[in-house]
């Protein structure tokens, strides 16, 4: 540094600061290079020591992830995993039994759960017997039983997964259910393992592709159980025989004018008969009715009127009057018979023989026996309550009359059917429906 006249050079400090910065920058650059060299050495050491182990772990993770994807696809029924047209399937009819008390009818279309149909499809999906979805299966059902109604012979038809590799036209394979030494799926056993206790598949049958569970059925048989009490069975049988033949049953059903325009149906058989069961001297009886098809609530309406005849409050001839729709165009208002005792017993088809393997049949027998015993135990509990929870012997006559135990309720006076208020006729309902259709079309 040059000193002149005791004063410092003002530009000297700036040059010194620049030199210091350049020196520090060179140092930092060199240090970065050293660190990069050290980092490279460490990476080479790591790769030489753990390369093989890391590769193995990587391979395992890839294989595990692929297996999880495969499992996920199988569980969710991903259509992209196996195209449905590559899956072997066959058209099958299934005979189904169900105890309807806890269900909102057979059909799932009412969107009231639980329904028998929804439970059946859950089982089909769970067992992976369903190929695609419900729409792809060409599904059909024989009937739509109401809430609480049971069945021992409901029939549905749809495409199910099959072990067969033979073409659909191979009738021998269709009947025997096997190709070579490979047997067909035991549909009854497989589905019953996935169904709730009050629904059971009791048989299956190969079906032609043009088979339809509803329109291919030529006869349906219903049973309605009741306690005889003081009913006149003879009068009920005479009245019930009047239903046989082809009649307009619009006064014995709930009209669905939007979908049903013909209310003529053919009843081919009617019988009143006692059953083997009895309780405390009261005989269990049944109505048996068979026909080609039935209307909405038709059986329960028929039974309701027959009960009035059995009680002696209506004449046998009232059946003739109600069947004559010219004389009685409007249905009298009356309550339906209870739905719980009604059973769709069987649906009949031509050239359809339902199959049940010996093992599946034995399982069904055991299951039905156990369920029957369970319900009998429940009945015993109610009988025990009836005997012990209301001890009439410990109650005085005065108390019993005050509590209403011995005092009988006054029965409501019966209003003859033909004197009751009536519902609108079919023509009146249809006339009201037309303006609604027109409004809907304009919208």
TrEMBL record:
Domain (Pseudouridine synthase I TruA alpha/beta) ranges: 241-350
Superkingdom in the source lineage: Eukaryota
Biological process according to GO: mRNA pseudouridine synthesis; tRNA pseudouridine synthesis
Annotated stretches, region: Disordered: 403-443
Stretches assigned to coiled coil: 25-52
GO molecular function: pseudouridine synthase activity; RNA binding
Record's keyword terms, sorted: Coiled coil, Isomerase, tRNA processing
Ranges annotated as biased composition (Basic and acidic residues): 426-443
Gene Ontology CC terms, in alphabetical order: cytoplasm; nucleus
SUPFAM superfamilies reported in the protein's UniProt record: Pseudouridine synthase
PANTHER family to which the protein is assigned, alphabetical: PSEUDOURIDYLATE SYNTHASE, TRNA PSEUDOURIDINE(38_39) SYNTHASE
Family designation: Belongs to the tRNA pseudouridine synthase TruA family.
Protein name: Pseudouridine synthase I TruA alpha/beta domain-containing protein
């Amino acid at each position: 540094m040059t000193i002149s006249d005791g004063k410092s050079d003002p530009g000297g400090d700036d040059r010194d600061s620049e030199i210091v910065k350049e020196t520090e920058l060179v140092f930092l650059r060199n240090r970065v290079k050293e660190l990069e060299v050290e980092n490279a050495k460490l990476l080479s050491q790591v790769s030489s020591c753990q390369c093989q182990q890391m590769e193995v772990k990587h391979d395992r993770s890839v294989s595990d992830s692929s297996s999880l994807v495969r499992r996920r696809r199988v569980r969710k029924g991903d259509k992209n995993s196996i195209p449905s047209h590559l899956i072997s399937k066959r058209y099958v009819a299934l005979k189904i039994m169900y105890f309807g008390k806890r269900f909102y009818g057979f059909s799932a279309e009412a969107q009231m759960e639980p329904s028998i149909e929804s439970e059946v499809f859950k089982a089909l999906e769970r067992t992976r017997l369903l190929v695609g979805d419900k729409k792809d299966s060409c599904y059909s059902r024989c009937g739509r039983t109401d809430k609480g109604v049971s069945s021992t012979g409901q029939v549905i038809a749809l495409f199910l997964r099959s072990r067969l590799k033979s073409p659909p036209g191979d009738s021998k394979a269709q009947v025997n259910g096997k190709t070579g030494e490979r047997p067909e799926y035991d549909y009854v056993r497989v589905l019953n393992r996935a169904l709730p206790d009050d629904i059971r598949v009791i048989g299956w049958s190969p079906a032609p592709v043009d088979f339809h569970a509803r329109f291919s059925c030529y006869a349906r048989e219903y049973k309605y159980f009741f306690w005889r009490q003081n009913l006149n069975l003879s009068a009920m049988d005479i009245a019930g025989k009047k239903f046989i033949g082809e009649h307009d049953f619009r006064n014995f059903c709930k009209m669905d004018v939007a979908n049903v325009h013909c209310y003529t149906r053919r009843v081919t058989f009617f019988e009143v008969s006692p059953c083997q069961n009895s309780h405390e001297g009261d005989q269990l009886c049944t109505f048996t009715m068979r026909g080609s098809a039935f209307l909405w609530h038709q059986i329960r309406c028929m039974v309701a009127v027959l009960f009035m005849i059995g009680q002696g409050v209506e004449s046998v001839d009232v059946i003739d009057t109600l069947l004559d729709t010219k004389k009685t165009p409007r249905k009298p208002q009356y309550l339906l018979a209870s739905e719980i005792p009604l059973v769709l017993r069987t649906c009949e088809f031509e050239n359809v023989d339902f199959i049940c393997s010996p093992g599946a049949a034995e399982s069904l027998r055991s299951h039905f026996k156990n369920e029957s015993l369970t319900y009998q135990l429940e009945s015993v509990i109610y009988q025990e309550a009836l005997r012990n929870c209301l001890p009439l012997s410990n109650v005085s006559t005065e108390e019993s009359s005050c509590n209403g135990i011995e005092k009988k309720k006054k029965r409501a006076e019966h209003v003859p059917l033909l004197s009751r208020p009536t519902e609108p006729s079919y023509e009146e309902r249809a006339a009201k429906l037309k303006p609604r259709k027109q409004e809907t079309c304009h919208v």
